[in-house]
Amino acid sequence: MFLEDCARAIGMISSVFPIGSIVGPLAGGVIVDQFGWRWTFMVAVPPVFAIVALAYRWLPATTTKAAKPIDMPGVISLTLAVLAFVYALTELSQRNVQPNVLVVGVFTLLGIVATVAFIRREATAEDPLVEMRLLRQKEFAYVNALNFLYGAAIFGLFSFIPLYAESAYGVSSATAGALLTPRAFAMIIASSVAAYLLPRTGYRKPIIVGLVMMSLSTFVLSFGLHDPVILGLRIPSVWYLATIIGFSGLAFGIAGPAANNAAIELAPERIAAITGLRVMFRSLGGTLGTAVIILVASRASSEGAGLEQAFVGIAVVNLLAIAFVFGTPDRVGDVTQTARGARPAR
């Protein structure tokens, strides 16, 4: 019963989170049009202070034992690895000047060295940042690979939709931000329903359905149609984009609660560690995926054409991610004997 309630709770969080996606892009678009893009960073300062104050006031104080020390060598080596790979990809994305091959090579090598150092550190650290024992389990490998690709798809699609709308369709920043609103509403509705139905549907079916729908929406988006004629009716480009983006939001809403909960089934008693791994792999996928998309867009004849090529890649990534779904748990409480026997002792 606890796992079912936990699954619904995390799913409901997934349905509330997109509310910020309604206000943020709308406000950001207006700010860019009126004051410039730099002010979009300044406007986030007051909400941050408000969140800190509310958290201090309303979140319950912890009564657990003293926190473990932070694995700073692990933090530093992982940060260096990600930054090095991203910088190498960024250097390759230069359009106005020829990329420096030496810089690319040096930072790629630095990324590899930092990755090796991170793995060795985590394998021997007393309180590691990432528990390698969890990563070595086959079931966790499937889940982490799924989250990596899932993060790349999420960031890759929604981070670049406003830029794509502006460069390929010539809309204003405010309109480009407003195009993300259908996505947020669709995610809220779909996540709420999907979270409630998780005990009945299991995890795999909604993830697969969501990934297929994501792939379809990004593939259609790559066509770059302007004012398409559908069933004899001419659809304005803005409404066409809003419909596709709303469909993709529906897809993410269906897959999100299940994707957020699947790994917890493997070791419910390690929910904190597993949640941290999920966020880490999803963020890594989003960071590196974003860098790759920028590289693809920079090498195309125009930003719009490059992003359309990237959308095809995202569609393929979504379909590839389905292969990893079959290695994840399917039902609440459905934990394999292998995972049970391999759980590390507290």
Outline of this structure?
The chain has 346 residues and is mainly alpha-helical. It has helices at 2-16, 20-35, 39-42, 45-58, 72-92, 101-124, 132-135, 138-158, 161-169, 173-178, 181-201, 204-221, 237-261, 271-298, 303-325, 337-342, and strands at 229-230, 233-234.
Structural commentary:
It is a single chain. The protein is an all-alpha fold and 346 residues long. It folds into two domains: 2-68 and 141-342, Growth Hormone, Chain: A; 71-128. Helix content is 74%, strand content 1%. It contains 16 helices and two strands. It has a two-stranded antiparallel sheet. α8 (138-158) packs antiparallel against α15, α11 packs parallel to α13 (237-261) and α12 (204-221) packs antiparallel against α15. The longest helix has 28 residues, at 271-298. It is globular, with a radius of gyration of 21 Å. The two termini are 23 Å apart.
* Named CATH architecture of the largest domain: Up-down Bundle
- Quickly name the level 1 CATH class of the largest domain: Mainly Alpha
CATH topology-level name of the largest domain: Growth Hormone, Chain: A
The portion of residues assigned to helices is over 70%
Percentage of residues in strands: under 5%
Overall morphology: globular
CATH level-4 homologous superfamily of the largest domain:
MFS general substrate transporter like domains
Distance between the termini: 23 Å
Mean pLDDT: 82
The tally of helices reads 16
Q: Which stretches of 5+ consecutive residues score pLDDT under 50?
A: 336-346
Kindly provide the radius of gyration, computed on alpha-carbon positions and rounded to a whole number of angstroms: 21 Å
Which strand order do you get reading across the main beta sheet? Answer: 1-2
What's the number of structural domains?
Answer: 2
Order of helices and strands: HHHHHHHHHHHHEEHHHH
The number of strands is 2
Major sheet, described briefly?
2 strands, antiparallel
